[in-house]
Amino acid sequence: MARVAVVTGGTRGIGEAISLALKEAGITVAANYAGNDEKAAAFTERTGIKAYKWDVGDFDACAAGVAQVEAELGPVDIVVNNAGITRDGTILKMTRDMWEDVIRINLGGCFNMAHAVFPGMRTRKWGRIVNIGSINGQAGQYGQVNYAAAKSGIHGFTKALAQEGARFGVTVNAIAPGYIDTDMVAAVPTDVLEKIVAKIPVGRLGQAHEIARAVAFLCAEEGGFVTGSTLSINGGQHMY
Ligand code: CAA
C-alpha cells in the first residue's frame, strides 16, 4: 500500500511543490491548509490531491485533522511541517500578537503535528518528519525576531526529536531554504528584496521545486540513514 503523507501549508508555494513531488514519488498526499479555500480548491482541481483545512497552530485541530486523514487515507507515515507565516517588523513596531502568531503557527505547528503522528510511526517502526526551517533561523534577519526565533527553534526541535525517533525507524530532518520565489518573499518590499538577492552568490531566488526535490529524498526509503540533519538550500547565501 502507498505511504501516506501530510504536507502542512501544502496547497501553495513551497508546500504545493512538496505535495506534487511526493505524489510523483508514489505517495498518497493530504495537503493541509488554513485559510484560502479558493486556492485550495484550485489546487485540488489541478493536482488531484485532496486538501484538508485546519490550523496547525491549534493542538486539538491537528489531532482531529490527522485522525480524519487516517480514517480516509490510512496511517500517516510522513509529515512535512511546511506551514508558516511572516509578521515582519523591527522589535519597536512588533506587537505581542505578531510575536505570538508566528511562534504559535511556525514552531507550535511542528510540535502539534509531530505529537499527533509520532505514536503511530513509533508503533509501525517507520516514519519521516521533515521540518521546513529557514536561512533566517540560522543567520537571523533584520525585522524578524519572531520568525527567526521560530525557525531557529525548528532546527533545535528537529535534532531533539531525531534522537527520540531514531531507534523506531522515524527520521526527523530539517531543510533551511533561503529566499524562494513564492508569495511570502514577494511580500518583501522591492528595494529590500533587491538588496537581498544581490547577496545570493548564485544570483537569483530559489524555486519551490528545488526545495521539494530534497524533501522527497528525505522521505524516501533511501533517506533512512539521514536523521537530525539540516540541509541548507539557499544559493550560497549562508554557508552554515
Ligand atoms: N541592517 C541594518 N539596518 C537596517 C536593515 C538591515 N538589514 N534594514 C533596515 N535597516 C535600517 C534602515 O536603514 C532604517 O534606518 P534609519 O532609520 O536610520 O533610516 C531603520 O533600519 C528602519 O528601517 P525601516 O524604516 O525599513 O523599518 P520598518 O520597520 O519600516 O521596516 C522591515 C523594517 C519590515 C523589517 C523591512 O525592512 C522588511 O520588510 N525587511 C525584510 C525582512 C525580510 O527579509 N523578511 C523575509 C520574508 S521571506 C521569509 O521569511 C522566507 C524565508 O524563510 C527566507
UniProtKB/TrEMBL annotation:
Pfam families: adh_short_C2 (PF13561). Residues 3-178 form the Ketoreductase domain. Its EC number is 1.1.1.36. PROSITE patterns: ADH_SHORT. GO terms for biological process: monocarboxylic acid metabolic process; poly-hydroxybutyrate biosynthetic process. It comes from the Bacteria. The keyword Oxidoreductase applies. This is Acetoacetyl-CoA reductase. Belongs to the short-chain dehydrogenases/reductases (SDR) family. It comes from Sphingomonas trueperi. GO terms for molecular function: acetoacetyl-CoA reductase activity. One of its GO terms (cellular component) is cytoplasm. Gene3D superfamilies: NAD(P)-binding Rossmann-like Domain. Keywords: Oxidoreductase. It is an enzyme of class 1 (oxidoreductase). InterPro entries: Acetoacetyl-CoA_reductase, KR_dom, NAD(P)-bd_dom_sf, Sc_DH/Rdtase_CS, SDR, SDR_fam.
